[in-house]
Specification:
The complex is a heterodimer of chains A (about 300) and B (about 300).
Chain A (H helix, E strand, L loop, with lengths): L1 H28 L4 H6 L5 H10 L6 H13 L13 H36 L4 H15 L2 H15 L12 H30 L2 H8 L4 H38 L5 H10 L3 H29 L7
Chain B lengths: L4 H6 L1 H10 L2 H35 L31 H36 L2 H15 L5 H10 L3 H27 L3 H8 L4 H12 L1 H25 L10 H4 L12 H28 L6
Helix pairs in contact in B: 3-4, 3-12, 4-5, 4-7, 4-10, 5-7, 6-7, 7-10, 8-9, 10-12
The chains are: A mainly alpha (about 300), B mainly alpha (about 300).
């Protein structure tokens, strides 16, 4: 187990290095002089020279990258072109919101998905199973921004139950979290159904039934507990995809998350913001995946890694 | 790489086991439902391709020119699906948009298919180092969750049709690479490949004549499923205003202003989204159906 964790941590290094090369390279790919990109078209030659020095653009590229990496490790992600604030500060203001949204979405999708999956598995080939199958197909086929618009139309405009946008209270987060969690719940439902069916035909389930254990006890105590192990890993992956989906959800509901920050950054050509946000989001995703994999290995002693 | 649980556990072995355990009638019922689902998927995809081909001929109005006097009209006799904020006919815009959508899908999936398959073959057959380097590179691409990778590419390259294709295509390269690699890793240990090597076939011949043709089933399944993913990514980018630019009637772009007219003209928000969902659903159904019929490991 410790070897496994050590090996995974070691493999993390090239990936995180690659992620930082990618976010560093973003600016290099933009056509034109990076100094002009950073300072704006109207900048005078003095300002450009200062920018070049400040960002190390007068140095060779590899040195530039080392400077970028060193600053990033110190928590210095540069200065936003638009707001003149440190990028790290902007991200610290926006990212917790997105994390909270993605977390709520996972809670919603876990509840919905696991229930639907268990019902489908225990009522195989029934109308309920079919309904869960169709529901999950529609769920994964739904463009998240359209689902958001429809939910807003129904619950905010027609029924006026929930606010259509903005943030502040928990009520503001209900629609976004459900919308964001919808496709994850479809994935989790499918996964739960498959995993439950697999466990339900194991010998130990048959043994439990044979010794007269109550069926509900068999399903929830014996089967679901074991079926949950592979489902757990999906939570990690889906949490990451929710970070991505949050870009669209935040736009639909005008929420102050990191997704909006990136989109606004791209529109304003505020490259330090885009670079910084990409770096932080990708690092988070990689770490979440690592934690899920370790949890998986720890929970299921049958899994062997070499 | 993590022990790749999702791909295997979400679908194949569990479902295969489930079918084996099922009774004859239950099995038949499920099979009929699945086949019918695949047929429905194929019909939706077929209808979509037809609309993309002849849609512009069917469109009652010019998709780009609107009459401001007729702006935001609810669906009715003159405009079946109503008009948008510039008085353009929404039905005509959806019909024209199908062509843009299918162009993006085909181009992006072809790009991902070509690069991903090549990388997957190289990683699976090229030995330990090739595998390590290629798959680490794929890990880096996959470290950007969901639409973030596409956004990063758009940030660097700019908006527009071609860059959307690049963004949506590169985003899918790892998916194809992983599937092909997994297939090659299994195949290359099989006897017929060993035999081919014993008979003196070179690496290129083995890859092209034995490994690639035998990996076609998962590649075809991925192609159908990824047509769905590309549509979601591309329309998402356009919805954000970072994809295909107005006034082009790309389906996601049709929704990007809908929020402003939510109260006065809710129809602007409904129809284009329905088009996206139907086509995505069609490709998903088709892909699932193809997986069941093409993958010999699932056939009982």
């Amino acid at each position: 187990m410790i070897t496994y964790i050590a090996r995974r941590l070691l493999l993390l290094v090239p990936v995180l290095l690659g992620v930082s090369v990618a976010s560093f390279g973003l600016l290099q790919l933009v056509p034109g002089d990076p100094a002009i990109v950073l300072a704006g078209q109207e900048a005078t030659e003095d300002v450009l020279a200062q920018i070049r020095h400040e960002y190390g653009l007068d140095q060779p590229r590899p040195i530039q990258f080392v400077i970028y990496l060193r600053n990033a490790l110190r928590g210095d992600l540069g200065i936003s072109i638009q707001s003149r604030q440190p990028v790290a500060t902007l991200i610290a203001q926006r990212f917790p919101f997105t994390l909270r949204l993605a977390f709520l979405a996972i809670l919603v999708s876990a509840a919905l998905g696991v229930v639907a999956g268990v019902v489908a598995a225990t009522h195989r080939n029934s109308v309920l199973d079919l309904a869960a199958l169709l529901g999950s197909l529609v769920g994964i086929s739904m463009p998240i921004f359209w689902l958001g618009l429809l939910a807003m139309l129904l619950f905010s405009v027609r029924l006026q139950w929930l606010p259509a946008g903005g943030s502040g209270t928990l009520a503001h987060l209900v629609l976004p979290a459900v919308v964001l969690g919808a496709s994850s719940s479809a994935v989790i439902a499918r996964m739960t159904r498959a995993s439950m069916l697999e466990v339900l035909r194991q010998d130990y389930t048959r043994t439990a039934r044979a010794k007269g254990v109550d069926e509900r006890h068999v399903v929830y105590r014996h089967a679901l507990k074991n079926a949950m192990i592979p489902i757990l890993t999906v939570f990690g992956l889906e949490f990451g995809y929710n970070l991505g989906g949050a870009v669209l959800t935040e736009t639909v509901f005008s929420l102050p998350g990191i997704g909006r920050l990136v989109v606004e950054g791209i529109f304003a050509r505020d490259y330090p913001v885009v670079q910084g946000a990409m770096l932080v989001v990708a690092t988070t995703f990689v770490l979440v995946n690592l934690l899920t994999d370790i949890a998986y290995a720890a929970l299921d002693p049958r899994i062997r890694y070499d | 790489m993590p022990p790749s649980i999702p791909a295997s556990a979400t679908t194949d072995p569990a479902r295969a086991g489930a079918v084996r355990a099922a009774g004859f009638w239950a099995d038949t019922l499920r099979r009929v439902v699945r086949t019918r689902a695949a047929v429905v998927g194929a019909l939706i995809v077929g209808a979509f391709v037809a609309v993309a081909l002849v849609g512009p001929m069917l469109a009652p109005y010019d998709p780009l020119k609107g009459r401001l006097a007729e702006r935001l009209q609810a669906p009715g006799a003159a405009h079946w699906l109503g008009t948008d904020e510039l008085g353009r006919d929404i039905l005509s815009r959806i019909l024209y948009g199908a062509r843009i959508t299918i162009q993006i899908q085909v181009a992006a999936v072809t790009l991902a298919l070509a690069i991903g398959t090549a990388l997957g073959l190289a990683a699976g057959y090229g030995g330990r180092w090739a595998d390590l380097v290629i798959m680490r590179f794929m890990d880096i691409l996959m470290a950007f969750p969901g639409i973030f990778l596409a956004l990063a590419i758009i940030a660097a390259l700019g908006t527009g049709l071609v860059n959307v294709v690049m963004a949506a295509g590169i985003y899918l390269v790892p998916q194809f690479a992983r599937v092909v690699r997994a297939s090659v890793l299994t195949l290359k240990e099989m006897e017929f490949v060993q035999a081919a090597r014993a008979l003196g076939h070179g690496d290129v011949a083995i890859v092209l004549r034995y490994l690639l043709p035998n990996s076609l089933a998962p590649i075809i399944v991925q192609t159908s499923l990824r047509m769905a993913t590309v549509l979601l990514t591309a329309s998402g980018l356009s919805f954000l205003g970072l994809g295909v630019q107005p006034p082009a009637p790309e389906w996601g772009a049709l929704l990007s202003n809908a929020r402003s007219y939510m109260i006065t003209a809710p129809h602007v928000a409904t129809m284009p989204g329905l088009a996206i969902m139907l086509v995505v659903l069609g490709f998903n159904l088709l892909g699932d159906g193809l997986r069941d019929s093409l993958d010999p490991r699932l056939r009982q």
